[in-house]
Amino acid sequence: MFGKLKGLFKKTEEEVEVSLKTKIKKAVAGRAKLGDDEIDSIAWNFQMSLMQSDVAMEVAEKISTELKEKLKEKEFSDPKKDVRGVFKEILIDVLEADKKIDLIEFVKKTEKPVKIVFFGINGCGKTTTIAKVTDFLFRNNVSVVLAAGDTFRAGAIEQLGKHAEKLGVRMIKHQKGGDAAAVVFDAVKHAESNGVDVVLADTSGRMQSNVDLMGEMEKIVRVNSPHLKVFVGDALTGNDAVEQAEKFNESVGIDASILAKCDAAKGGSALSVTYITKKPIMFLGTGQKYEDLKPFDAREFVDELI
Questions:
Q1: Which residues of 111-120 are buried (b: 16+ CB within 10 A; e: fewer)?
Q2: Which domains are present in the chain?
């Protein structure tokens, strides 16, 4: 996964150059600081690699600045190896911006029913991701009811219903154009009455700039007080996924993200979304099957990249 990004970082690492002055210092003392020109060159190459890998420009610039500051503070004995270590340290810091959420542990420790609402625009893979999370919970002996909270499109209700049928779970729905907050509320009541562990709620996926959509999302949250608000982003859309995450975070305050379609993406969206929202990634979607949902591990992710 994300092989393109890994290749770009390898290229950046190979371009690390050490001036004659630094080499002489290293030969005498064993360790030396990099010069300003060297640091600028390394940081620029690093920034270009990030941007070529679909990391948002704003995020790439900020991460590059952090890299410069860290390089200025350190002495190096083996520049290429040591700089590589600094790369990894920065990326792990970004990806571990907030406490990791282990969904199964979260469900175990939270009062039932656990209410999880999913946000994201049309086409991001949100409904399929909800089905994957349902399957993941099932395989861990957690019962689920689905809420068809995307009442804007009849097709969305039908799509979620097909997944519910395949997975053998109940789906609560209203008619097209109904009150999305009321759909989620009814699903919660169903879960309470039937001893269901988790409610997974779909929501409308119009563009994040739609004022009515954001008002609807805010009402769903206000009425139902979800335990987790999860942003689902399409890893292939790069900067668009970042803008979407930022808007939903500003409006409803997301708690975590799931990135879909990571099997074909470069990887930059993971860094960008985490940096912008300061919230953890829970899962990566890696294919079309229900089981193609991988719990996110920041250190494993960075090890794959570098």
A1: ebbbbbbbbb
A2: 3-95 (1.20.120.140), 103-296 (3.40.50.300)
